[in-house]
Structures are given as structure tokens and as C-alpha cells.
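Anyone else keep sequences and C-alpha cells together like this?

Example one:
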Amino acid sequence: MGLALTTITDSIAGLTVTGLLIKDIDEVPNIWDGRAPVIFPEPMDFLTNFEAVPATNGTGTTRAWDVTYTMRYTLLYCNGTDGRGLENMKSAIDLALDFMDAVIGLTTISGCVTIKPGTISTPGMVPDPSGKLFYGCHITVNILEFVN
């Protein structure tokens, strides 16, 4: 059994959060138009803190592993010039918390996996993949997979 990254990202992309477009790893926008809030895997630093620890004795395919890693997502809420910062901060945090709530309730992943909420960065100016700045934040999700 291999790592379930595709299954995990597909499952997260399949979540429904009112007012938020959730993109899969193969749907990261090159440029975001700012019409609706969006969250996507962070292209520059998506997988971090990767660690594989043997869970049982054995060799090759007979050894089970505990594999942990962190996935980092970018939430873009609105254009950086839209409205006052405090109004945007509350709304961006509300969407980030709604996303984390949906991740916590995720039950469609097979084979593995423990998903734990990670961090929500302080909202502020965040770049889209083209480098244009928008109001948003970064969100991390911690993964534990049991692989053999």
C-alpha cells in the first residue's frame, strides 16, 4: 500500500464550505481573479515535515510505517484593496474555521489516515501563484498515514 496523498487531496477538494471554492492539487490557479474566496494547495511549500517511522519490525513490504506530514493551503479571501482590514480579517478567519471544521468532519478517506487541524496564520496580504497580493491566510493540515 502506498501513500494516499491523491486520495487525501481529492477528499479535501470534494468538501463543501459555503462561500469558498476548494481546489485540488491539480487545480491550483495560475492567477486568481478575486471574484470568490478560494483555497488551494500552496504551490511553493505544500508538503512539509515529512517523516516516516517504522511501526513494526520487518523488511521491505512486510514492515509497517507511520508516515506524518503537513499539507499547507492558501486561502485567498479578497483583493487587497477591498474594504477595511478588520472586516476582511473576521470574514477570512470565519472561512478558514469553516474549512477546518469541514476537514475535521471528513469521513470519505480510505486506508489510513488521521487528519488533524494544524495552524491558521494571521490574515494579511498573501500572494496568488502569479505573485499578486490578496487578503487571506495560510492553513495547515497534519496527516498521519499507516503504510505497509
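And example two:
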Amino acid sequence: MFKHFCGSISLFTLVIWGGCGGGGDGVSANPPIATSVTFSSCAVKPLLGPDNYRSAIMDMRFEQPNDFTADGKLVNSFEAVVPVINKIDCVGFDTVVFQTNIPIDIATGKLELYDSRLGAFNPDKNIPKDFWRLVEYAKNKGLKVFIKAIPVNHISDLTICPSCTSSEFLLPSTFSTTNFFNALSSYETVLAKEAEKYKVDGFYVGVMNLGLDTTQYEADWDRVIEQVKAVYKGKLIYEACNRCTAIVWNKVDIVAIHTSNVFEQAPSETIAGLSTDTSILNLVGDVQRIVNLYQKPVLLDTINIGATGKSTDLGAVLSGAIPYANLQPNYSLQAIKIAAVFELLGTKFSNKVVGLQWSEFMPWSQATWIQNPTNDTAWRWHHVQFYGFDLLNNESAQKKLSEYFVKPWL
């Protein structure tokens, strides 16, 4: 039942990007380098309840030993990521979602923490060594923290989503669901035990595992959740698409709806027009259906609104199929669409929507080869990071979010 509508989910939002470790071939003509973020003052946050979430997703998948900031720090190190968390706090977010991977060998379904291919960038797929130290830092700042470990192909970083329509998600006949759920149970238990130690507020048991989140696998999910609950006392979360019906949503505390690029795709360029756009009204209706069906608090998750303000095939830019110079920002349109999310939250979305999760802050985009590109591949990544949906390098988006974060939304 998923296949006829999952094609509307952006493929790129289901690929958790990875810094490719530098470089590329071919020197290109040099367009102006985009300016890194600066921010003059911090948002004054209104008091919200403990069960409301203004969340920034932060990409923290694995160590990147070849990628350094301009001042020589490893991009996912404590020293490099602390300023990113400070920025998230300053913009007005009250929750940091530490997004990481559960790397799966799709040939077997087993956990695979090392990419053994010759020449593989970032072959070690364990979480960054400073991951939990950074979780502790965020908690000590008074931020709420979620752990979002996404089951992915250990080579491509594509989400394990067999009912997604694109051929990239196809799993070989050798993929074992028994191995897959064993991997989830064992690895999530390790992560959940640490999450409990640091009093993490929410923990994802799965993310967009469409086709595996059905009644057929209910007993497998029960086992995974039982193992996690044995070591972790916080809220459990599962994320699936807005058109989905997922058995796992019955078993968790918070329903996360993968919002993706719905607002980007909407053609209107005014808040009034967006409020009557068919795709957005469909999302509103889907949220109400899910609220009525599951009777759980809802997060609008993985909200992607890039600097162009419209849906863009970022994967095609990275591959070179679309010239990177074609990717140009439209910050005013992006600001309108960011505003529309909040305005619709206040007027059309159910009061069961308890949080907005914005995608995303990418500490690895501070790598010198991205910030100061010297070849064609690096220029493509530079443009995608500055003009895609990376919020770290987009001061305009930060300011618009702050305008709403100082108001008592939610």
C-alpha cells in the first residue's frame, strides 16, 4: 500500500548526507564563495512545557578523519561541534536531535560497522567518539535531546525503506529481516543504555522503514521495543510518512511524521496561497487522520525548506547532472515558506502537534574543502551545503526561525 504514494517523498531526504572526505577532479571557474554564518544576538525563548519541542536535527553519523575545520579541528569533534550546538541554542531551538546511523549490510541485513571497500571514505561507521560527550554538553545547556539512529545501507547511507518506490531502495533477495531486526535490537540497546545515562528525552526505534513497519513484523518490533525499554525510560518515537499507517506508531509515545519537502514543492509564493495549496492541505488532513487513529502527540519531522525556497534535485547537482551554478538562493521565498509552517501550525494543524523538527545542521559542512572549494566536486558540495537545506550556513533562515521562536508557538 505504500508504493503508490512514497514516490512523493524526496529521495534526497532519505539519504543522510556524508562528507565525502574531500576533493574531486577538475578545477572549475571560481564563482564567489558563499559567506559563513554570523549571528549578532540570541533569541529570548518563551517558557514552553516539557513536552513541546522546537527541534534542530544535527547530522552526527560517524567520524570523518579526513575532514577538518579552518582552525584544524576534526569536523565531528567536541571542539568543532560545541559552537554548532551553541548556534542551535542561540537561534531559539530548545531540542537537539542527534541524528546518526545504524549501518546495515543490505546483502545480509546484519549490522556492518566498517566499509571494507578499497578506497572507501570514512570507512569506520561507528558513531563519532565525542557523540555522548556532546549529548552531555547539550543537556547541561538546558536543551532537550533526542537520539535518532536511522537504519541505513552502510555504503550509500540510504534509509532501509523497501516500500519506497525508487529503485535505489531495492533490497537483494539475500537481505534477511531476521538479521535486520536482530541488528536493531542489539545496536539500539547499546545506544539506549547510554541515552538513559544522559537522561535523553526521546529515542527513535525506527525511521521510515516502510514495508518493514507492518503487521507482518509486529512481533519483531515488540522485541526491539522491549529490549530498548529494559534500559531506557524516556519517550520512544517512530517516524513514517504522512500517508502511512504504521503498526509501530501504536507502540511508541510520540508519532513522528516525515514532512520532507512538502512546503518546498508547493508553488505558491505567499503565506495565504500556501495555506490553500492542495499538497499542504493534504498534509493537514493526513495529520488529523493520524491524530484520530493513534491518539498520540505528533511531531512534524524532517522539515526541509532549502535556500532556493523550492524543491531542487540536490543529488543531481552533486552528480554534475545539473550545473552547480544553477543552484541559487531565494532567501525571501525561503522565509515565506518557513513562516507558513508556523502560521499553519497556529491555524490548521491539530493541537496534538507538539513539535517541529527542522532539517538540518551539518557540522561536517565546516570542512575546509567545502568552505573553500578548489575543484569542481568541491564547488558542487559547496553550493549544495550553502543553498540546500543545511541551516548551519544559512543566516537568513536562522533569523526567520528566531522571529517565530521568540513567540509562544506550541
